[in-house]
Write a structure and sequence with these properties.
This protein has about 450 residues and is an alpha/beta fold. The chain is built from 20 helices and ten strands. A five-stranded mixed beta sheet has the order 1-10-9-7-8, with helices on both faces. Strands 3-2-4-5-6 form a five-stranded parallel beta sheet, sandwiched between helices. Helix 15 links the parallel strand 7 and strand 8. The radius of gyration is 24 Å and the shape is globular. The chain starts with a helix and ends with a helix. Bound molecules: 5-phosphoarabinonic acid (PA5). The site of 5-phosphoarabinonic acid has 14 residues, from loops. 5-phosphoarabinonic acid binds next to loops.
Length: about 450
């Protein structure tokens, strides 16, 4: 359709250049919640959007992520230069961090990496620490790093989290033993608060290169800050494109885009309507094994943002078709409290065709000449139809390709929808009071100084 002059001017860069965006489809939820119920969220969503943009809602001191795609751009050259230096110097780079301080980076790196990167000699290898307290994990990591030139990126906003602090002490000691203190210093980068916390004190004292996590950005919303961007750049991926994709979604999901065309608004409304209808568990589904950690990142984003005040959708995930052979039975036929959100990737990077076989002993000649992805897509379509028939509503996010740009779009889309969704639910999406309970008990059990009364009380319970 030809457009009038004014309309042409209004076209975005992407429309002018025919660049697709990620798309959300919600019509396979309408058999469970009528489209009118979702449309009925328009007013509430508009209020939630206003709470985000005007900063009038709970947690309004943690809204720095909203404008990160623009705000981070001045730091990209420093991040790229730091990554280039680590890439040149290191065989292995260890990213230390937990929760929001590692999941976003791992999600993007895994989504973009060769599936066998750890075997194909790629340098530097990116490995992770501080995301658990497994003694065998840390032993095996130390063994792996013996005799290798490795670097460390230590990420902790508070600078006091136990898991990364333990890993950093162990690996920093090893690096200094292997390289000498002066050389080790050049291979360590810390990302933390600008002034507070033990990691800031340590980094200043030792003279490490640092990047700052701004006060107004919570861990799970920090992937587009140095927290995510430095490791992603170290893995060799294009952080400019990632940020560009996010910037695009900032425009598409902003409050200026009307409810009907706003994917973040539609997703927040649809999942909230499903939740109110009794669908209390959302499964994030992929048909692309590289997206496994995107789901892990998403689970933290939604679980930690919404699971409070005894409310919230339980975010879970499955990898298909793998899990169709395990969890598929429950999803098809178990208790009906589920809905699915499928991330579908339109075009894989590579082409693999099934060969013809004269003998056809495996009976697969009907697939000869077809792409593997065609089979995968039919599995996706068949599963969606079966699950909808079985009582599982289906939302779908389509990514044209798995690349930095579309991952940037996906990240910002999910973050924006999460902010809206949390406000629709009536919770503060930006705090996480619940994660403190286990820490208090752990410190009491470990006799941490300052926890004497708690130690006594907890030990009396054992
Ligand atoms: O989202 C969050 O706030 C948490 O997951 C934190 O990122 C996680 O607990 C790590 O905290 P820190 O970066 O302070 O070490």
């Amino acid at each position: 359709m030809r457009m009038k002059r004014g309309e042409e001017q209004k076209q975005t860069y992407n429309q002018q250049h025919n660049i697709m965006d990620i798309q959300l489809t919600i019509d396979k939820a309408f058999g469970f919640v009528p489209s009118s119920a979702i449309a009925g969220y328009k007013g509430q969503v508009s209020k939630a959007q206003e709470m985000l943009t005007k900063g009038t809602g709970a947690g309004n001191d943690f809204l720095g992520w909203l404008s990160l795609p623009k705000d981070i751009q001045s730091q990209l050259p420093d991040l790229q230069a730091t990554a280039a230096k680590l890439r040149k110097e290191c065989e292995v780079i260890v990213c230390i961090g937990i929760g929001g301080s590692y999941l976003g980076a791992k999600a993007v790196i895994d989504a973009l990496s060769n599936s066998f990167a750890w075997l194909n000699g790629q340098k530097p290898q990116i490995v992770y620490a501080g995301q658990n307290i497994g003694e065998d994990y840390l032993y095996e990591l130390q063994e792996l790093l013996k005799g290798k030139r490795f670097g460390i990126i230590c990420i902790s906003k508070s600078g006091t989290t136990t898991e990364p602090a333990l890993a950093f002490r162990l690996l920093k000691t090893q690096l200094e033993q292997q390289q000498g203190k002066a050389s080790a210093k050049e291979l360590i980068v810390c990302i933390t608060d600008k002034a507070r916390g033990a990691l800031r004190t340590l980094a200043t004292k030792e003279g490490y290169k640092t990047f700052v996590i701004e006060d107004n950005i919570g861990g799970r919303f920090s992937v587009l800050s140095p927290v995510g961007l430095l490791p992603i750049a170290c893995a060799g991926f294009d952080i400019e494109q990632l940020v560009k994709g996010a910037e695009r979604m900032q425009e598409v999901c902003g409050s200026e885009t009307e409810f009907e065309n706003n994917p973040a608004a539609q997703y927040a409304a649809a999942r909230n309507a499903l939740y109110q209808s009794g669908k209390k568990t959302e499964l994030l589904v992929n048909f692309h094994p590289k997206l496994h950690y995107i789901a892990e990142w998403w689970k933290q984003l939604y679980g930690e943002s919404e699971g409070k005040d005894h409310k919230g959708i339980f975010p879970a995930s499955v990898d298909f078709t793998t899990d169709l052979h395990s969890m598929g039975q429950y999803i098809q036929d178990g208790e009906r409290h589920l809905f699915e959100t499928v991330i579908s990737v339109s075009e894989p990077d590579h082409k693999v065709l099934f060969p013809h076989d004269e003998e056809n002993l495996d009976g697969l000649n009907f697939l000869a000449g077809k792409r593997v992805d065609e089979v995968n897509k039919m599995a996706e379509l068949g599963t969606m139809l079966a699950h909808v028939d079985g009582g599982v509503p289906n939302l779908k996010i389509t990514m044209p390709k798995l690349n930095e740009y579309y991952l940037g779009e996906l990240i910002y889309f999910f973050e924006r929808a999460c902010g809206i969704s949390g406000y629709l639910l009536g919770v503060n999406p930006f705090n996480q009071p619940g994660v403190e309970a286990y820490k208090k008990n752990m410190f009491a059990l470990l006799d941490k100084p300052g926890y004497e009364a708690e130690s006594k009380a907890i030990k009396a319970r054992l």
